[in-house]
Amino acid sequence: LLAADGGLGVTIFEEMTTLAVRTGAINLGQGFPDEDGPVEIREAARAAIASGANQYAPGKGLPELREAVAAHQERFYGLAPDPATEVIITTGATEGIAAALLAFAGPGDEVLTFEPFYDSYGAVIGLSGATHTTVPLAAPDFMPDVAALEAAFSVRTKVVLLNNPHNPTGAVFPPAVLQRVVDLAGRHGSIIITDEVYEHLTFGVGHTPVATLPGAAGRTITISSAGKTFSLTGWKIGWLSGPEELVAAVRTVKQFLTYSSGTPFQAAIAKGLALPDDFYTGIASALEQKRDILSAGLRAAGFDVFTPQGTYFVNVGTAPLGITDALDLARRLPELVGVAAIPVPVFCHPEGAERTRSLLRFAFCKKTNVLEEAAARLATLR
Ligand code: PMP
Ligand code: GLN
Fold first, then answer.
1. Which tens digits make up the pLDDT trace of 1-17?
2. Which atom of ligand 2 is found nearest the CA of 94?
C-alpha cells in the first residue's frame, strides 16, 4: 500500500506544503487557489449557520443540494439524474472516489486507471484489495495509446477509474478516446467511475461528461466537487450521480465512512451551483490567463512546457536544465529558489515513475503577481 502512494508515509501534498511553509517558498505544489470563491456563496454559508443548519444533514445530502446538482447536470450536459435516487452528496470528491471504489472493487478484481494517477486512487485501490492496472499517458500530449488501452482490459477489469480533465497532466481527453473506454468497459462488463472535478476548468475545449456518451449512462458513476469550481477546497463538499442501483451501493459504503457531510456548506453550494453561466465561463478564462503567464515563465526558465487544456496544473520536463530526477529536484527546489512543485513520478507505479522521472507539476491557481514572482525565481535555476 505504501508503494501505491510513491513509497511516502505522508501524501506528497502534505510533504511539499510543509516544506513550502518551513522555507517560506511560493507554494505551486498542492493545488489550492490563493483567492477564495464567490462572496455570495460564503455569505450563504454564514446565513445557513445563523439560521440553525448545524446538525447532521440527511445521509444522502440536503434535498436542495441534490436538486441543484441535478439541475446543473441538466443545464450544462442535458443529463437528468433523479435527485431523490440518483444523486448523493459526499465529503469532497475524495470520499466519493473511496466509497465508489470500495463499493465495486475487491480482492480478485482489477481497477484500471491511466498513469500518472491522482494519489488517492492508488491508496484506495490498495485498501479495497483489488489489483491496480494502468495505461500510460506520455508527454507531450498525455493521450493513451489505443492498443495499450485495449490490452489493459481483462475479464477481471471490474472498474475503470477515469479522470477528465486529468490531474496531474492537464490533459482533456477527446470524446473519441472516452468513447473507446466506454466501449471497452461495455465489452468487459466494467463499471466506470469518472472523476470530473475539473469539469469547468478547460481552456479552448469543451468538457464531455463520460455519462453523456452512447453506452455509458447505465454503467457510470460521475463524481465532482465544489472545491475547484468555486475555489472552496477547504469546504469538502462533493457529489456523485449515476444509475439508481449503483448509487445505492455507493451510498451504503458512504454511510459508514462519514455518514453525512457539512450541513451549512451544502446549503451554500446549492446556491453556488445556480450561479449564471458567465460565472462558469469567467473562472475558465481567468485561469487560462494564469496558465499562460506561468507557462511563459517556465519556458523562459528553460523547462520543456506541456501546455494543459484543463485543470490548474502545468507539467514541465526538467531535462533541458540538465536535471533528470524530478523527485530530488522537488525536494530541493524550495531551498534552492523559493518555489515548491510536485514531482510527477509520485503519481505512478515504479515503471511509470521511471518514464515520468523528469516531470514536475506546477499549480497556476494563484494571483498573477505570485505567478510572476515564481517565474522570476525559477529563472535563477540556470
Ligand atoms: N480528484 C482529483 C483529480 C483531484 O485533483 C482532487 C483534488 N484536487 C480530488 C479528486 C479531491 O477533491 P476534493 O477536495 O473535493 O475531495
Ligand atoms: N488535489 C490537490 C492537488 O492535486 C490536492 C489535494 C490534497 O492535498 N489531497 O494538488
1. 444 444 446 889 999 99
2. 9
Q: Partners of 279 in the beta sheet?
A: none
166-218 pLDDT tens trace:
999 999 999 999 999 999 999 999 999 999 999 999 999 999 999 999 999 99
What does the alpha-carbon distance between residue 95 and residue 80 come to, in Å, rounded to a whole number?
23
Q: Is the CB of 33 under 6 A from ligand 2?
A: no
Ligand showing the shortest atom-to-Cα distance for residue 365:
2
Q: Which CATH number fits domain 39-274: 3.40.640.10, 3.40.630.30, 3.40.50.720, 3.90.76.10?
A: 3.40.640.10
Protein residue with its CA nearest to atom 14 in ligand 1: 92
Q: Which CATH superfamily is domain 2-36+278-381 in?
A: Aspartate Aminotransferase, domain 1 (3.90.1150.10)
* Ligand index nearest the alpha carbon of residue 113: 1
In our burial notation (b when 16+ CB lie closer than 10 A, e otherwise), range 139-172 reads beebebeeeebeebbeeebbbbbbbbbbbbbbbb
Cα(94) to ligand 1 centroid in Å equals 6
